[in-house]
Amino acid sequence: MLLKSALSALADPADAKAVGAVLDITSPVALKHLRNQMQASPDGRAVLEQRPLPPNSKDPDFEALKKLPKSTFGGSFHSFMVEHGFSPEGRPAVRYVDDEELAYVLLRYRLSHDYYHALLGLPPTVAGELVLKAVEALEFGLGGAALQAALGASGGAGLVTKGEREELREVFLPWVVRGHARRRGMESLLCVRWEEEWGTDIGELRERLGIEPAPEFEKRG
């Protein structure tokens, strides 16, 4: 199952089901570490106890985000989802983690993925996804994310151009490393109670979390 899913993920980093299976199978040790981090944080414990989920796309709470300025986290998240045709319920369920609490930790990571896109300013292109996987690999220590990040740096299985590959190595991976160093000692992003930050100015939220917005992709050829 791991080999089959890994090959599918290598062929298409946007294959959510294959990527999810790799994460499910390879992450038990990292998940226990992440759960320990969450249990050591008041906000993390609250997340584990309440087990919040993003608002459903048909939920009035999601529609209410449209009324928020794009300068807020909630407004930015809503714009990202609508502009790219995504829905909060589109992430696959956890299938290969038996422990109920660990399964939620992985689900929380998975459901927060689009929050990170909005927070970091990364597009949902193959190159953008690979950069985000590099961020997640360092932030959470998940093997599946590291696999995809390495794929991007080595050529993205032909799914990124030569120019994008060069930019990944020369611009974005150094940005990822700088960001990881900046966040050293801070709480895991899994401890952030995103649902209580909808009205927060996104610049203020980034500053509080030690986040530098991503550079823009420039090279395509």
From TrEMBL:
InterPro entries noted in UniProt: Coq4 (IPR007715), Coq4_euk (IPR027540)
Residues where Zn(2+) binds: H113, D114, H117, E129
Obligatory cofactor(s): Zn(2+)
Keyword annotations from UniProtKB, A to Z: Lyase, Membrane, Metal-binding, Mitochondrion, Mitochondrion inner membrane, Ubiquinone biosynthesis, Zinc
Location in the cell: Mitochondrion inner membrane
UniProt main location, coarse: mitochondrion
EC number from the UniProt entry: 4.1.1.130
Superkingdom of the organism of origin: Eukaryota
Region of interest called Disordered, as start-end residue ranges on this chain: 41-61
The UniProt record lists the keyword Mitochondrion: yes
Catalytic reactions of this protein: a 4-hydroxy-3-methoxy-5-(all-trans-polyprenyl)benzoate + H(+) = a 2-methoxy-6-(all-trans-polyprenyl)phenol + CO2
Membrane-topology annotation of the record: Peripheral membrane protein
Protein's pathway: Cofactor biosynthesis; ubiquinone biosynthesis
Annotated family: Belongs to the COQ4 family.
Self-association state and partner proteins as the record states: Component of a multi-subunit COQ enzyme complex.
Function: Lyase that catalyzes the C1-decarboxylation of 4-hydroxy-3-methoxy-5-(all-trans-polyprenyl)benzoic acid into 2-methoxy-6-(all-trans-polyprenyl)phenol during ubiquinone biosynthesis.
The name this protein goes by in its record: Ubiquinone biosynthesis protein COQ4 homolog, mitochondrial
